[in-house]
Design goal:
The complex is a heterodimer.
Chain A (H helix, E strand, L loop, with lengths): L7 E14 L5 E16 L4 E5 L6 H8 L7 E6 L2 E2 L5 H8 L2 E4 L13 H11 L7 H12 L16 H13 L5 E5 L7 H18 L2 E6 L2 H7 L2 E6 L2 E7 H6 L4 H8 L42 H5 L15 E2 L24
Parallel strand pairs in A: 3-8, 3-9, 6-7, 7-8
Antiparallel strand pairs in A: 1-2, 1-4, 4-5, 9-10, 10-11
Chain B lengths: L35 H11 L1 H18 L1 H8 L7 H4 L13 H4 L16 H37 L1 H15 L3 H16 L8 H32 L2 H8 L4 H38 L10 H11 L4 H29 L6
Classes of the chains: A alpha/beta, B mainly alpha.
């Protein structure tokens, strides 16, 4: 996906949260390296999936892009405009184009406001006066997201989780954004509702040409939704590729392990592939391992992995746009072997 | 004389500010959506204790506001010493000559020993003064507490730390002792020691001093609430759409804070009524001849061995009012914050 003029261009994005401690005066005693040097682009109308375990920095990335958090380093460019450290006033014109859908539909709607107020709020703030007035536009939006326009005057507590999430989507759409950061938009919902909301988002993406950064930990949903997928581990992207490429030909051991963990609904008695069980826990982002961050749990790790951080590059055998950060990328043919769950190889 | 301890309940969900009595119940049409406020109102109406207490409290406020009118219809005033014109009202020991503290069709609640003032109008005006001061102090306390608490919670960091320490100091202060010691100092700031202190200055100083110590508890409660709300996703959603801090505080945060604010102030007001009366009783608040609940109780305490009636009226009315207001506060809390039910 070599787009010459991407909608969103993120380079070396870093966010470290300071850890304060000490007595009697608090001072910085460490930093949680939540996001550490991310590079990716999102083209217009494209959907980029961001997957990874809990705590790997996915949500932080989303909040950095929407500038809810101040990046520690790197740069975020929207349509070539640097918004890395832009203040609220400078951000104003961009604000309406980058919107966000939140994870928890119960916390993302103000319980004191009616649905109408929640959705028309963004328009008021940005001084948008649609023809026919705010109310007409809100009713349209409610219809777009599959809700009854008559619910205009209702309060959030009168809706179910799925309906609330639709309200959240309508709010994000109110400003006609070009990019929506969806931070685990369906993980708080029932599985049956998840499909509805994901399909709604997909329709919107297709019909309105909105680009998405879709954050999730569910590989199946990302596969369904995103054309391109980035896999994160401990604040870094370990692999980024087009959907088919990544799912058919994962090159990074971590991607491979993640994919193997997806339960498969097959009638066959023989499992079609080996499950790779990762041992140990994710290391603390306070003190990440040297070199490759995955090495403590990788069955292939060597000395080199401990000393040299693998760059995110197009390794041999990868298709265009398929980047992997690994010294010893997986090869498709030699798949079934690694039953190395009992042998974590090298320890930190 | 201490402000009410803040309830740590986090009333966020289906709760609302609109306990206003004006909220007409008849507006619940079939398809009309149920706002959090309307739900709270419905819950409140079901609470018998709360409704009865509300009527009692409203009754007290009405007679306080209408005191001059009632006094005019009744034909007496609280300042005239009726006994000096008609010495037959008091006996040789300056106690009311009639039975039951001189209660009669002319003096409904009897007359005061010694000076012979009319107890009924004195009580009316006393309630008026006391409630006026308590209401003003409550309003001022609430405003200061809300502003400081929300600011500290929303800004966080150093501001929060500083404000937090000030609150700690204020809350650990023995406020009653301080009132007694400090009230003369406040008067001294405005009036030379040999001059008379005007009543308005006494009232204003009382309001200021009561508020100066009262805001800390409400500020601390709100600071905590804001700290919790600040991280909510709907606040982030507002930020993503480019909302200004002003809009976030007033449109997103404040509506969610009305519940603790209202609960706190309804519990604070009766505490201020007793505090004000206590100070008057101790002689550092409003003093005779200004009619006041505390002044009346103080005078009553001088005569109660001989003339219990004079003590009974202010004492009983105050107990009823404070009890009713506290029960009302509890009911309001239960209605607004159903989860905190014991």
């Amino acid at each position: 996906m070599s787009n010459t003029n991407p909608l969103l261009d993120v380079t070396g994005l870093t966010k470290h949260f300071p850890v304060m401690g000490g007595f009697p005066f608090k001072r910085k005693i460490g930093a949680v390296q939540a996001v550490d040097g991310l590079d990716f682009q999102v083209a217009e109308g494209e959907s980029l999936g961001l997957v990874g375990e809990s705590g790997c920095g996915k949500s932080t990335t989303g909040r950095l892009i929407t500038r809810l958090l101040e990046p520690t380093g790197g740069s975020i460019k929207y349509r070539g405009q640097d918004i890395t450290h832009a203040g609220r006033k400078q951000l104003a014109p961009v604000r309406s184009e980058i919107q966000m859908i939140f994870q928890d539909p119960y916390a993302s709607l103000n319980p004191r406001q009616t649905v109408g107020k929640i959705i028309s709020g963004p328009m008021e703030i940005n001084g948008i006066n649609p023809p026919g007035g705010h109310e007409k536009r809100v009713r349209e939006l409610l219809e777009t997201v599959g809700l009854n326009p008559e619910h205009y005057n209702r309060f959030p507590h009168e809706f179910s989780g799925g309906q609330r999430q639709r309200i959240g989507v309508a709010r994000a759409l109110a400003l006609e954004p070009k990019l929506i950061v969806a931070d685990e938009p369906v993980s708080a919902l029932d599985v049956s509702i998840q499909a509805q909301v994901v399909n709604l988002l997909q329709e919107l993406q297709r019909d309105l040409g909105i680009a998405f950064v879709f954050i999730a930990h569910d590989l199946a949903i990302v596969r369904h939704f995103s054309e391109r997928v980035a896999v994160m581990y401990l604040g870094k992207i370990v692999e980024i590729a087009d959907r088919e490429d990544l799912y058919d030909n994962p090159r990074h051991p971590y991607t491979r392990a993640l994919l193997s963990a997806v339960p498969e609904a097959t009638a066959d008695e023989v499992p079609s592939r080996e499950r790779i069980l990762l041992t140990g826990d994710v290391p603390s982002p306070l003190n990440p391992p040297s070199g490759c961050r995955f090495r403590t749990r990788c069955w292939k790790a060597t000395e080199k992995c401990a000393t040299e951080a693998p760059p995110l590059v197009q390794v041999e055998g990868n298709r265009e746009g398929h980047l992997t950060a690994c010294h010893y990328p997986e090869v498709k043919e030699t798949v079934p072997a690694p039953r190395l769950s009992k042998d974590p190889g090298v320890t930190a | 004389m201490t402000p009410p301890t803040p309830s740590a309940a986090a009333p966020l969900e289906v709760t609302d500010e609109s306990v206003e009595k004006s909220l007409s119940p008849s507006t619940t049409k079939g398809s009309e959506s149920r706002s959090p406020g309307r739900l709270a109102w419905k819950r409140f109406k079901r609470d018998r204790t709360g409704v009865i207490s509300a009527y009692i409290v409203i009754f007290f406020f009405v007679i306080a506001i209408a005191a001059p009118l009632i006094a005019k219809l009744y034909g007496k005033n609280p300042y005239t010493t009726y006994a000096s014109q008609r010495p037959e009202l008091l006996d040789a020991f300056s106690y009311p000559s009639g039975p039951n503290g001189g209660m009669s069709s002319e003096f409904w609640f009897g007359i005061e020993p010694q000076l012979g003032r009319d107890v009924f109008t004195f009580l009316l005006y006393g309630i008026r003064t006391s409630l006026g001061i308590a209401v003003a102090a409550t309003l001022l306390t609430t405003v200061v507490g809300v502003v400081v608490g929300v600011t500290a919670g929303y800004l966080g960091g150093k501001t929060d730390y500083l404000v937090g320490r000030i609150i700690d100091i204020l809350l650990s202060f023995p406020s009653t002792l301080f009132f007694i010691a400090f009230m003369p100092v406040v008067y001294g700031l405005f009036v030379a020691p040999d001059e008379n202190i005007p009543t308005s200055l006494r009232a204003i100083s009382l309001i200021l001093v009561l508020s100066a110590f009262g805001w800390a508890s409400i500020a601390r409660l709100l600071r905590g609430q804001v700290l919790g709300l600040r991280e909510r996703e709907y606040i982030e959603a507002a930020k993503v759409t480019g909302a200004s801090p002003k809009r976030i505080v007033f449109k997103e945060l404040l509506p969610n804070l009305w519940t603790p604010i209202i609960i706190q102030s309804t519990l604070m007001l009766p505490a201020y009524v007793t505090a004000e009366a206590g100070l008057a009783f101790l002689g550092v608040g409003i003093i005779d001849p200004t009619p006041d609940w505390g002044v009346m109780i103080q005078r009553g305490a001088q005569f109660y061995t001989e003339d219990l009636t004079f003590m009974l009226f202010p004492g009983l009315s105050m107990v009823i009012f404070v009890l009713a207001f506290n029960l009302l506060g509890d009911s309001v809390r239960d209605a607004l914050d159903p989860k905190s039910k014991r």
